[in-house]
Amino acid sequence: SQQGEEDPQALSIQEGENATMNCSYKTSINNLQWYRQNSGRGLVHLILIRSNEREKHSGRLRVTLDTSKKSSSLLITASRAADTASYFCATGPNSGYALNFGKGTSLLVTP
Amino acid sequence: KAGVTQTPRYLIKTRGQQVTLSCSPISGHRSVSWYQQTPGQGLQFLFEYFSETQRNKGNFPGRFSGRQFSNSRSEMNVSTLELGDSALYLCASSEDREKLFFGSGTQLSVL
Prior knowledge:
The complex is a heterodimer. Chain A is an all-beta fold.
């Protein structure tokens, strides 16, 4: 069952602009992760943020987590055409193991 | 290290048949998870194996089964195929049961 829900469903920007995607979830979590998927291929792990962390950076990626609002955001700065992909948030539950994925945000970066 | 390898890449079957998909995890990873991805439902967790034991199972009918071998390679089987089983089946391995490394998937079409 879906836990996270990304917003917006689709986003179109130009190269050099920043892209912000949001994720909301319903139950308590141990961690929240973001993954990227290109054209129906496998997903690639981008970043993991734990429930006791509020912000994390990795290169051009910045992730925030607000457990009181049960939401997270992924910011990609200075977007490139190669960032065109679908982005998924996945929540790691407090009990059990299986990651629950949202339906993703489709990002299109045009030159 | 080699990545997660899934075979075959594409598969076409007819209703009522059965199918076996294979996954070779990254060397040293003992956890293997399977996900079904469809445009309508997104990514749905099927099951996870760790050291040859099924640790978690998603909400799928008994037609979906899997196993893991002593070398951590995993197979999943779907019996009595239905049209709705058409999907991208993704395998992911993990060292820490947190961050997942995905294969490129097997695209199954049921006619």
